[in-house]
Amino acid sequence: MRKLIIVQTATPDYRKKFYVFIKQHLKDYFELYSGDNYFEPTVESDKTIDFNISIKNHFLFGNRLLFQTGIFWKQVIKENVLVLEMNPRILSNWIILLLRRAIGRETVLWGHAWPRSGLESKSDKFRNFMRLLGNKIIVYT
């Protein structure tokens, strides 16, 4: 069975029940990776999610862009289901998407259906290209 790997910028407390539910059902076939905080520094990872594997967030240009490093990169080429945030500001996700697309690995994107500034946002062009690189999309509002 393939593992489900979720890579997040941060794992805030309001998502803890969701992650625990997945862990209880998939057990060793689920791994969760995240940095300490989100683009808005007040959104922090919940340290009580004991199975979360810490990775490093490198924010650039005043928290406008992000590149993530850490042990999760070992999972990038493996034949697992990888879930990434559908956020065009996460530069490392672009590299992962392109690499996994090239080698035929399944990548799921999850995120907001539309940018905060709406459908006419300049960033939606990037978000749409991300959608095309992913295999599946999970959206929420």
Description:
This protein is of the alpha/beta class. The chain has one domain (4-140): Rossmann fold, CATH 3.40.50. The chain is 25% helix and 28% strand. The chain contains three helices and eight strands, in the order E-H-E-E-E-E-E-H-E-H-E. The strands form two sheets. Strands 3-2-1-6-7-8 form a six-stranded parallel beta sheet, sandwiched between helices. The radius of gyration is 15 Å and the shape is globular. It starts with a strand and ends with a strand.
Give short descriptive properties of this protein.
141 residues, alpha/beta, six-stranded parallel sheet, 8 strands
In short:
By secondary structure, the protein is an alpha/beta fold. Helix content is 25%, strand content 28%.
Mean model confidence by pLDDT: 94
In terms of DSSP E residues, the strand content is 25-35%
- How would you describe the oligomerization state of the chains in this entry? single chain
Integer count of domains: 1
- Overall 3D geometry? globular
Determine the CATH topology. Answer: Rossmann fold
CATH architecture designation: 3-Layer(aba) Sandwich
Helix content: 10-25%
Radius of gyration: 15 Å
- Spell the H/E element sequence: EHEEEEEHEHE
Characterize the largest beta sheet: strand count, sense, and whether it forms a barrel: 6 strands, parallel
Spatial arrangement of strands, main beta sheet: 3-2-1-6-7-8
Please work out how many helical segments DSSP would assign: 3
CATH class: Alpha Beta
The number of E-state strands comes to 8
Low-confidence stretches: none
